Amino acid sequence: MKDKTDRRVKYTRALLKNALIELMQTTHISKISIKALCEAADVHRTTFYAHYKDQYDLLLQIEQELFEDITRYLDVQEVPQEQQGFPLTIQKLNWILQYIQENAPVVKALLSVNSDIAFQRDLMQFMDIIPINFGMGIDEKTREYIGIFYIDACISVLNKWLEGGMAEPVEKMSAFILQLMYDGISSFEQK
Question: Where are the beta strands (DSSP E) in the chain?
């Protein structure tokens, strides 16, 4: 009996998550009512409240599951010996972008203007996108500004890639992001 209950719980939560992702395609999270969410998922409000406090709680659960999935995804990948210890390598970024590509609707909704901005920052920090050794000899305040610049640039690149239907291959996007991160904008100038 417990297995049947667990399946129903998983199914209900999946319905609610999919409904929220769908609604976030056009509506900001703050404007999504529980009523609209329940109608889209075809579940009763009491069912919703049995699982979540509000739409933000559901969004947080989706975000946490995404991070857990990425962690599990990366854990099964083997990092070449020469790349171990680096905060962000081409291989690691390829794997992350591959995961994003495979889960595009969810990531697109979470990175959209209709989501919570905190997710965007959490994602980049989760990915260790800011090189650990950058800015040696730079004061802490300046390092913070540089870090924010990197984070926002990467988020914008990911959004542009997702909005463009991920036309560029994962490998090309990984190389682009790393070149931007480690070599700067001037490295793209025609010589």
Answer: none
Residue type, 83: Q
Q: Where are the domains of the chain?
A: 2-188
Encode burial over 119-137: b for 16+ CB neighbours within 10 A, e otherwise. Answer: bbebbbeebebbeeeebee
Query: How do residues 89-105 score in pLDDT, each as one tens digit?
Result: 788 888 889 989 999 99
Half-sphere exposure of 121 (CA within 13 A, CB side): 7
| Cα angle, residue 86 at apex, residues 80 and 91 outer, rounded to 5° | 45
Q: What six digits make up the tokens of 71?
A: 């962690």
Q: Six-digit token pair at 185? A: 């904008």
42 phi/psi in degrees, rounded to 5:
60, 45
Could you give the count of Cα atoms lying within 13 Å of 130 in the half-sphere of its Cβ? 19
pTM: 0.78
Is the domain defined by 2-188 classed in CATH 1.10.357.10? yes
